Amino acid sequence: MPTLGAIADDFTGATDLATTLVARGHRTVVAVGPDSITDGPGRAAADAADAVVIALKSRTAPVAEAVDSSLAALRALRAAGCRRFYFKFCSTFDSTDRGNIGPVADALLDALGERRAVVVPSFPVTGRTVYRGRLFVHDELLDESPMRHHPLTPMRDSHVGRLLAPQTTRPVRLVGLDTVRAGAAALASALDDPALADALVVVDATEDEDLRTIATATREHPLVTGAAGLALGLTGPRPDAARAAAASGPGEPGVVLSGSASSATRAQVAHGRAHLPHRRLDLAALRADFDAAVGDLVAFARACWQRDPLRPPLLYAVGDLGDLDDSPAASALVERALAACATRLVAAGARRLLVAGGETSGAVITALGVRTLTIGSPIAPGVTWARAVCGDENGGRSVDVALKSGNFGAPDIFTEAWSVLV
Ligand SMILES: Nc1ncnc2c1ncn2[C@@H]1O[C@H](COP(=O)(O)OP(=O)(O)OP(=O)(O)O)[C@@H](O)[C@H]1O
Ligand SMILES: O=C(O)[C@@H](O)C(=O)CO
């Protein structure tokens, strides 16, 4: 029976957290939405796990919808037996003045009858650190990093407290690195200070050891919030937690579907364009005749498989920022198109899909009717292969999926990820 329940605000974040939990000794299942673990095989998978991560597509949803789905996830996790909870948001704090990090954290605290929670975006292995409340992405402050230009959540400040304050009804407080470095006991008593009793508390961390200290200091807190880094300090009961074997064999058809406009993905798209057969989504063609435009992309991918099964085609939405279309429906159109490509390509034989972008991954996995994901071979920090069973409407096929966060992975990930799939 699981004891740790996590709610991730997007799908790449869910597999990011799950891969860290597996590495730390938790048998972990990723469930697609709260309903996936209420009965059937999803329920059985949850019962056999130490940790369950529920993947939501709530990061950029309307606030009320994000709150409702997060509360539904909390109810499902409690019903499954979980006693501690982890709200996983993005390591670059992707959100707007309205939310959804603050409103979801507030709602989860209220539902648990709790008053305060730590807020820990730091994830040093991917370059995210927090010092004096400012979030850095490698050497740059968040608002000076390419996250400034994100199509859905442009990050125009780097002070986590200032980003969070307009989103929450609670006061926002900061606990600095000096307190963290004083050790878990000192940090625990600092967090128990009555001045922080009702607050969301942003905690500095620049190294993995800081995250382990924060995890130890908060081990009695029913709710923690953060990126995946905090899970480094959560030791599970099974150091040998197994990883799923691949569903597909080498040479079986694969595809890269990229809807991300993030800078790391743009470098990966550039590398992919140099080494893989590729096509960019044509938004005008999709608007004019959606089915025909998707049909062209699918036909292209199938022809690529026939020519060279070892070089998966790359279907991508953004090569450079000039490709971005700022009309309101463009992002939904791209998500719908890549999701339609995924279902049609799986029907045509695709067994391995590398998807770039959290929203994009949510659209693809939902369209495939996947209910649970089992973590397989790791690819890069925060990126892993996972084994998924498609819904009956997609033939119930088992496929391998890698859900890559927009800003994770080396430039050659689209060509190199396949070699670790065993
Ligand atoms: N050409 C385009 N014009 C407008 N919107 C686009 C275009 N291409 C992609 N998008 C949209 O941009 C959004 C990118 O978000 P997504 O979460 O998929 O990537 P990301 O933010 O880089 O990833 P992550 O959340 O994992 O960091 C998607 O909604 C996608 O549909
Ligand atoms: O924390 C991160 O950066 C990622 O897991 C993520 O949330 C990507 O969308």
Please explain how this structure is put together.
Helices cover 35% and strands 20% of the residues. With 422 residues, it is of the alpha/beta class. The chain has two domains: 4-233, Putative sugar-binding, N-terminal domain (Rossmann fold), CATH 3.40.50.10840; 254-420, 3-Layer(aba) Sandwich (Molybdenum Cofactor Biosythetic Enzyme, Chain A), CATH 3.40.980.20. The strands form two sheets. A 15-stranded mixed beta sheet has the order 9-10-5-11-4-1-3-2-16-17-18-15-12-14-13, sandwiched between helices. The protein has a three-stranded antiparallel beta sheet with strand order 6-7-8, with no helix packed on it. Strand 17 (383-389) and strand 18 (398-404) form a beta hairpin. Helix 11 crosses helix 12 (330-347) and helix 12 (330-347) crosses helix 13 (358-367). It is globular. It starts with a strand and ends in a 6-residue tail after the last helix. The mean pLDDT is 96. It binds adenosine-5'-triphosphate and ligand LCNOYBR7. Adenosine-5'-triphosphate is lined by residues 10, 12, 150-152, 259-262, 265, 317-318, 323-325, 330-331, 334-335, 357-360, 405-407.
